[in-house]
Structure formats: C-alpha cells, structure tokens
Amino acid sequence: WPAEEVVLSLEKITVEFDGFRAVNGMDLSLRKNEVHFLIGPNGAGKTTMLDVMCGKARPASGRILFRDRIDLSKKKEHQIAQLGIGRKFQAPSIFSELTVEENLALSLQKKKGVFSVLFARRKEEDARAIERMLSTIGLGEVSGRRAGGLSHGQKQWLEIGMLLIQEPAVVLLDEPVAGMTDAETEKTGELLRRISVDRCVLVVEHDMEFVRQFAGKVTIMHEGKLLMEGTMDEVQADARVAEVYLGK
Ligand code: ADP
C-alpha cells in the first residue's frame, strides 16, 4: 500500500514574536486522503502553525513546500489562497442576510472572477457546483433560507462549503466542532472524512473525544515543538504524551 502523496510539507519551521519562539523547529507533512489533527496544550503553537501555513504569520526560518516545489514561506496570504490552501477562521464569514445558496454562489464567484456570471454555460456549471456542494454539506433542504437563521452547526457547514467550493487542495480548520451538539459533531466528523478524499484536511482541535473518533493521523505539539506524531492509538500509548498532555 503506497503512502499517500505529501501535498504540504513544513520543514524546521520557526515563528517568533518579539524574540519569543511560538513555533520552534516544527516539521509537519500533510498527505492526501487523511484527516490530520493537530493537538496540544494551550499555547503550544497550534494556531501559529495554521497562521504560517496560510501566510498570516511569516516564519523566521524553515521552508513550507507545496506540491514538492513551491516554497510558500515568502508568499503573500492571497497568493497562498490562490494556490489552493483554504483556511476557515473561527470568526464567522457568512453573509447573514443572503440565502445559503447565495453565500455559496458568492464564494464561487470570488474564486472564478466576475466573468463566470456573464456566460450562460458557465452559469449552468456554477449552478451544478452549488447543487453538489449543498448536498456535500447536507444543506440542500435549507438552500433558500437566510443564512442568519441557520443553527450553529448549519452555519459551520455552510462556511466549510464556502471554502470547499473554491476547490482547495489543503483545508485548514480551527476547532470546527466548538459549540456543536453531539449530533452536529458526529455529522461534522463524517463531513471531514468525505472532504478529505483527494485533499488534505488539517484540524486544530481540543475535543479529544472527537479526535479519537475521527483522526487518521495525530500530531501533538508542546511548547512550539513536535512532541509526537502517529495514529490515535500510538499517541495514546506514549508515556510523554500522557505526561504533558493527557495529564496522567
Ligand atoms: P495554541 O493555538 O496552541 O494555543 P498559539 O499558536 O495561539 O498556541 O500561541 C503560541 C504562543 O505564541 C503562545 O504563548 C502565545 O501567547 C504566543 N503568541 C501567539 N500569537 C502571538 C502574537 N501575535 N504576538 C505575541 N505572541 C503570540
């Protein structure tokens, strides 16, 4: 069984804030077809890792290789987004007054540019893409509803849909199940599995039950460094992990 292709690879990444090393020599490889969780105690450097991957923070040293050849470490945030690295922030980005469908259409337009609305054939293509996305995120039945009136879980799925409709190769999510009910959490886990087909999904997460249930691979950070990486079973069996993180 060949290992899946590495799409994004961070090598010896260091990020400093006024001389303080929030991330200190981290390595991380994201492979296709894998829901990869990044976990660790508060202040470990997880959010900074997401920031560095999407260009919001700049590494003091190290490389970020996309598809084995493009170094992202010196690229701007919008260039990185265009290359296909999509980040969902915790702050909401949906337009409450627009319908679910309109929100998806807007996000698609943003990616394709204004010309896509001018040609009839493209319009049909777009409509089909929106239809498919509604079905992926399970919002087909509420497609005409105002986004502001959705439940918390539905809003999160819409945001994930708005990201996915731009067809990113890498999806970065920050605590996607925070505030969700158990049923919504379960659905989100299944959604993450579906969307990891042919792409990389990296999730920063605190909900360990959720990680246990849905993790393909787990990377644990501690004080800016890699503590351990492996499957959930491997990670849970590790004594250092138990000591610094699981509090045993
Ligand atoms: P985590 O997401 O694992 O909780 P963060 O990446 O948010 O950790 O933070 C790692 C460390 O870097 C923390 O000590 C935090 O205080 C510090 N830090 C993060 N962002 C900044 C910033 N913009 N300026 C100064 N310090 C920061």
From TrEMBL:
Pfam families: ABC_tran, BCA_ABC_TP_C. CDD domains: ABC_Mj1267_LivG_branched. The keyword Nucleotide-binding applies. One of its GO terms (molecular function) is ATP binding. SUPFAM superfamilies: P-loop containing nucleoside triphosphate hydrolases. Keywords: ATP-binding, Nucleotide-binding, Transport. InterPro entries: ABC_AA/LPS_Transport, ABC_transporter-like_ATP-bd, ABC_transptr_urea_ATP-bd_UrtD, BCA_ABC_TP_C, P-loop_NTPase. Signal peptide: none annotated. It comes from the Bacteria. GO terms for cellular component: plasma membrane. Residues 8-248 form the ABC transporter domain. This is Urea ABC transporter ATP-binding protein UrtD. It comes from Cohnella zeiphila.
